[in-house]
Amino acid sequence: MALRALANSKTLGRLYHHHHHHHTRGLQTFTLPDLSYDYGELEPAISGEIMQLHHQKHHQTYVTNYNKALEQLDDAIAKGDASTAVKLHSAINFNGGGHVNHSIFWKNLAPIREGGGEPPHGALGWAIDQHFGNMEKLIAKMNAEGAAFQGSGWVWLAVDKELKRLVVETTANQDPLVTKGASLVPLVGIDVWEHAYYLQYKNVRPDYLKNIWKVINWKYASEVYEKECP
Amino acid sequence: MSWSISNYLISSSNELSRCKLPYGSEGQRGKCQALNRPTNISAYNSLKTPSFKFDQVQKRKDHVLKKPRNISAYYSLKPPNYKFDALEPYMSQRTLEVHWGQHHRGYVERLNEYLAKDDILYGHTLDELIRVTYNNGNPLPEFNVAAQAWNHDFFWESMQPGGGNLPILGLLQQIEKDFGSFSNFREEFIETALTLFGSGWVWLVLKRNERRLAIATTTNAVTPLVWDDIPLLSLDMWEHAYYLDYKNDRARYANVFMDHLVSWNVALGRMARAQSFVNLGEPKIPVA
Known about the structure:
The complex is a heterodimer. By secondary structure, chain A is mostly helical. Helix content of chain A is about 50%, strand content about 10%.
């Protein structure tokens, strides 16, 4: 099962104590990744309070519930309980997606003094100019899609690794980007759930979208891009 | 078409859930407030609630004449029945100010903008507008703003200062009949609220076909109106509804709503009117 493969590759070297000792498969659990910067270092674009809540409460909840759902899935499979296994899929998609999306998100952000907001040079910069005209147009497009998005979700800049093309996509709730296309690899994701900006920007999502570009980590995006399109 | 009461009732049979029971005005109990306050009034000032006399005059004018040229709004933003600090400490004044003043106001204003552009939608009541723009599951762009405007009106009315406690009379009986006990219902309602993914609403509805109460969830702007069910209560589970007061703690928000905010009076009134359209009891057929 694809989930099993994902579990193994993600948690190599992070085997944690698990109280289901009788399981021979040894279910590995996921853990909350650390940020490579302090909560307050993205100010004033994103407040430290939001970063702390977002990381320690929201993302942690996704991780906890993801692990719980996987445990329950493991039990259901062991017992041969197909209907329970199927029922758990929505919880796994939601919480697992939340974990995956937010893990990418933390890497998408960087303090200004570490290069946050610095536009990409090299292959990614050139591809952006080619596909969108220039950086301003890309930002305008992503901001427009993010602002118009109804409810909770994400707006992504992705590369289609088959077609070698940059695309802007949105996903609802915590659906991972691959639900919009199996060959899409996320480069930059922006969380437009209200919890990502509400304490600071309230209802004014466009302001949040305008300001977050000041702390977007284009170095990471370039690395991912160059790996997919060498 | 003359504006008789019977016409209004027939055309607004689906509007019964919009009839609000004014909090604290015992004299008005039982009288459908919607007769005095139509939902699609023309207003020249979109922020003030117009007086009764103004409504009557505008109603007749709308019906007889063509659309006036200098109309500035189709729907007005109705404030809640209570002051913004009346729900403290369970829902802060700040939340009311932002939630009503920015979110709800934004929906109403954008709805008015859409209606100013598109004459095809003119003349519907808000309920009809929601159904039409829902387009059987393929919503038109106006749906989001129309439905959210309605949803938020409904939500403010579903709460009251000093709310919570238990429902009474027929509503309690019906809850006990359909859920076993009130605590079962309460547990299920809160559980449903906590397992809702993303943005949405939790509703207590009266299902028309099954003729029983049920708990329903909807995503984003969807409302049970589109399935022709009759909503009795709603809880806004969009993050903006609770984030300023409770941050991530949805469980506490849902519990506080049940314990201190929900207006069972309003739900009782809504159910009483719903019974004009849904027969809950067995008909009493006399034995010949």
